[in-house]
Amino acid sequence: MKHTLIFSLLFLCGTTSFARQQTDDSPLGAYEELTDTRAHDGREVWERMSAPVRLGWGSTDIRYAKQDLPTVEKIGRLRLKAWKGERIHAQAVLWTREALKEVKVTVSELRNGSSVIPSEDVTPHFVRYVMTDELNKDGKGGCGHRPNKTDWDSSLVADVLDINKVLDIEACTTRPIWLSLRVPTDVRAGRYRGTLTVSGANFKPLSLPFEVEVLARTLPEPKKWAFHLDLWQNPYAVARYYQVPLWSRAHFDAMLPLMRMLADAGQRAITTSIMYKPWNGQTEDHFDSMITRIKRIDGTWSYDYTVFDKWVEFMMNEVGIDEMINCYTMIPWDLRFDYYDQATNRVQFVEAKPGDAAYTEYWGVFLKDFARHLREKGWFEKTAISMDERPMEAMREAIKLIRETDPEFKITLAGNYHPEIESDLYYLSIPYGQQFPKEVKAERERRGQISTVYTCCTEAFPNTFTFSAPAEAAWTVFHAVAGGYDGYLRWAVNSWTTDPLRDSRFRSWAAGDTYSIYPGPRSSIRFERLVEGLQDCEKIARLRAELGARGATEKLDKLNRTVAKFTPEGLAASGQSATEMVAELHALLNTL
Are 200 and 103 in contact (CB under 8 A)? Predict the structure, then answer.
């Protein structure tokens, strides 16, 4: 907190931009992957290759092993479909029994007569390998402390989409190549053809043809999607990994491309922390308070909103995420509340639970001043006091205090469904497996309230662990639509481990639970598959409206039946895998 006080003064005097120096401990550019010690194909297997270097079209549903010969179906020309404005993906696979030097990937423009999708709209990425682990030993989830990594079955897994354009590839290894193509909204419908080419210093170039059928429908920009996406951001992790001063211009510059990835996925909410360690420091980089509380010598209170304002203004004005400001939390896991005490010149703590007089004084005075500040900034209607997985009685006391202080404050909760407090919660996200009663959901819609579902380490499936099947990311958001929720929440999108590019394992929870985007910025297979699912959710909403308006009952019924399967019960009854279900729905959305 003392650092926060000092920094507030620095902000008022102006900030300095610091150059980022790459280190081996926190690389941003080139880096080496860890070694996989699991059994893999030996040299004798690789020697059976019909040619020293091979290239083929793979599947975005598969994480290809680094040191095993891949099974790749022979495809002359890969054929994809897309709406205008959609981002689609493909995965090629390069495998070699010889070391390759200075490998690079290029993609041509895609042509349909005189109509062109420029090559700038197509981005290839080398897929990099990161260390992962496994579910708990009972296979029922990924929660729990993991102090000793050797207790868990660990292996390298394909997930990171690299930003490096040139890569050396070891002998007897597989290197997937991820292709991301954004279809312009102004191209005409039709079939567009292009070529992916892999070249290097010591082998002849290899090429693969592909085709994209652009359909006569247009996907709107993410900001206009109906789906409410809430992935919690951690700015403190970025400052640590990029080795820049917290809240400096260099810090914001580092965060900008990362947070724009969220905006481009349809993110709705800004994650803010209004107290020190709201979650008791559960991540590698704990959250500090973005608001400094000062108890003056005379016993009155003052508040410094400098950091809070800078963060919110950055997210709104530079990133473009401006729908909600979620402020965590009035009910932390450890009921200790910090402030700077002028009388002792020290950071002190109030220890109190909701309902105590000390709790009421600490939060009541603050909430009144906070409401004043938010109204002055024009943010009050967007702001919510937010809690996370807290007991109902504690929530009742906090809600009572908020209502007594300013009844117009919005309140949110990510936690169990409690009918006793449901109506007080503007935004309520309940765990996977719980449902809103139909009449309650309808009433919440009438009141303009938001009702979503969340997953965390609890779910063995579906999830976005680094070992999860890629299609599970899309399955998760399809489940939100099938269950009648307004959207989806996940508690961490960039709470990085100590070495996130190489090792996704964490001291708590299954690997990858704490993040799905990497430093660089680098996306991941699971994040891109999540985006695919989010795009398809918008397609579902638009097709339902369109088919209903024109009375296409048969097609609408088929769509609704397919979507309805994305529940735990539907999954069990269908006999399909998550991958098969996602592929079926995606294909249907491009044929209706």
Answer: yes
